[in-house]
């Protein structure tokens, strides 16, 4: 839903909008620019609510898909470490470069064909992780 084309533009509150949306679906996924908006809206929602980001709490499911991608790419997260500029100078062939995208100026497109470039596979894993999250919310797993 886009706030510029919804009833929000006509003055409808976030709480009322969420209450209406809850009547249309089995769950509500909300992303909002205002910090704590999702928590506030959840108090007025009779359906499960998934936080898709609010204010500085952007992409709360990103950590889930990151750990899932690491496990898919490497097999485990035990004993691994955070990549720093120092580590990159000694990068091994069996490492992966993950990024939530957009890449902006952080990753050169020339790196995309390197097998260690996992960011597009990571984005695909995000679909599976979020599907699993919805299945858990609906008690189907």
From TrEMBL:
Which example biological process does GO assign this protein?
amino acid metabolic process
Top-level taxon in the UniProt lineage: Eukaryota
GO MF terms on file? amino acid binding; carboxyl- or carbamoyltransferase activity
Which residues does the UniProt record annotate as the domain Aspartate/ornithine carbamoyltransferase carbamoyl-P binding?
Answer: 4-72
The protein's name = Aspartate/ornithine carbamoyltransferase carbamoyl-P binding domain-containing protein
């Amino acid at each position: 839903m886009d706030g510029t084309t919804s009833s929000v533009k006509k003055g409808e509150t976030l709480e009322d909008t969420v209450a209406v949306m809850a009547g249309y679906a089995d769950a509500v996924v909300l992303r909002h620019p205002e910090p704590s908006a999702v928590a506030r809206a959840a108090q007025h929602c009779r359906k499960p609510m998934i936080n898709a980001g609010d204010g500085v709490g952007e992409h709360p499911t990103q950590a889930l898909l990151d750990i899932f991608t690491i496990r898919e790419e490497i097999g485990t997260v035990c004993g691994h470490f955070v990549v720093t500029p120092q580590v990159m100078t000694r990068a091994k062939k069996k490492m992966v470069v993950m990024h939530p995208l957009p890449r902006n100026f952080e990753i050169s497109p020339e790196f995309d064909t390197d097998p260690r470039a996992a960011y597009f596979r990571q984005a695909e894993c995000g679909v599976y992780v979020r599907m699993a999250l919805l299945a858990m919310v609906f008690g189907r797993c």
